TrEMBL record:
The keyword Membrane is annotated on this UniProt entry: yes
Keywords, comma-separated and alphabetical: Membrane, Transmembrane, Transmembrane helix
Membrane spanning stretches: 23-40
Name of the protein in question: Kelch motif family protein
Source organism per UniProt: Reticulomyxa filosa
Protein origin, superkingdom: Eukaryota
Keyword Transmembrane helix carried by entry: yes
Record-linked SUPFAM superfamilies: Kelch motif
Length: 161
């Protein structure tokens, strides 16, 4: 975590996922105090995987997710959508060491167990509702900076003259 007021960076060393002990080149996303690892490659045996693992920051535990990627992939890039409802795994290399041309996208809910989703609904429900309300307000009432508005009016006057 970065503390802007004190300009200090605080971090904690995480335990390595036992199943991925010799793996590298996986992609990851962070969401709701969980880290998700997608794919990867064993640096000793060169085995590639299509498994997805999750780390709970609260419980400090690693688990294998119920979903898997549709293909073995490593050296890819993972990102969340703006509204945190879906994840995308892009690029990387496939099982034949060729460029991965398939873009994997799925709903974030698929990453979680039902019990985790129920806990998160209670914990993050208010925060998500607030964020959705703010997004809706931005779409309904776009804000124009008054200086820019005045400048635009001045430009129109100059064009008429």
């Amino acid at each position: 975590k970065y503390d802007e007021q004190n300009k200090s960076f605080d971090y904690e060393k995480l335990p390595i996922c036992p199943a991925l002990n010799d793996f590298a080149f996986y992609s990851f996303v962070y969401l709701y105090d969980f880290i998700f690892l997608f794919g990867g490659k064993n640096i000793i045996t060169y085995e590639r995987t299509k498994l997805v693992y999750t780390y709970s920051m609260k419980d400090k535990t690693w688990n294998q997710c119920k979903i898997t990627l549709p293909m073995e992939i490593y050296a890819s890039f993972a990102i969340l959508s703006n509204d945190d409802t879906s994840f995308h795994v892009i690029g990387g290399l496939n099982a034949n060491y060729g460029k991965q041309k398939t873009h994997v996208s799925a709903n974030v809910e698929e990453l979680f167990e039902k019990s985790e989703l129920l806990k998160m609904t209670k914990m993050y429900g208010k925060m998500i509702k607030l964020r959705n309300k703010i997004t809706k307000m931005k779409l309904e009432r776009p804000y124009i900076i008054p200086i820019e508005k005045e400048r635009t009016n001045e430009d129109k006057k100059e064009n008429k003259e």
